[in-house]
Amino acid sequence: MAAVQPMVGSAEGGVVSVAAPSAVFVGLGANLGDREATLRSALQAMAQLPGTRVERVSPLYGSAPVDAGGPDYLNAVAALATTLTPQALLQALQAIEQSAGRERPYRNAPRTLDLDILWFGDQVIHTPTLTVPHPRMAERAFVLRPLADLVPERVDAACLQAVASQGIYLLAGTGWAEGVAGDCF
Ligand code: AMP
After folding, report:
1. Residues with catalytic annotation?
2. Which domains are assigned to the chain?
3. Does the structure show a pLDDT above 90 at 80?
4. Which residues of 122-138 are buried (b: 16+ CB within 10 A; e: fewer)?
């Protein structure tokens, strides 16, 4: 029989945390305001979530907006270990987006901060609010390139090749996020 993981409930009664951490990859993007400062703040905020550790952060990239206007995006991917459930992490990431001043006036609008759950362990999730693996990640060079920097063995070369024509440029090595990765629980 499979082991049952101890779970922690929220004040509202939902399960928000389990005992064993999951390896999670989060895509970060910003194309308004002080974009690099916003991404750094978002990483700090993720590192302070309960039961969550920012393990590694990719280099920083710039990319032209896809299907949208506005300034170029700054993009990166963070590898987390978290005991939060997928839904609890999604809510926490949305709260971080909100605190960065994000508004959602229309689809693909320029945004101060966008946080997407790319992979959550090996879970496949289809709920009205959460789809994992992220449904559009394979179409986006600004996701696949930094993801390949972190876990090259998990990003198929043919997928990278398929998005190679998208405008994306390296801005900084992993040092841009120094001081965030490896923070303690
Ligand atoms: P976006 O405008 O790209 O930030 O999309 C946000 C919406 O996508 C929210 O309503 C989320 O509930 C939903 N969503 C579905 N799957 C994911 C995911 N893997 N990561 C983040 N948001 C997701």
Report:
1. 102, 111, 114, 116
2. 18-184 (3.30.70.560)
3. yes
4. eeeeeeeeeebbbeebe
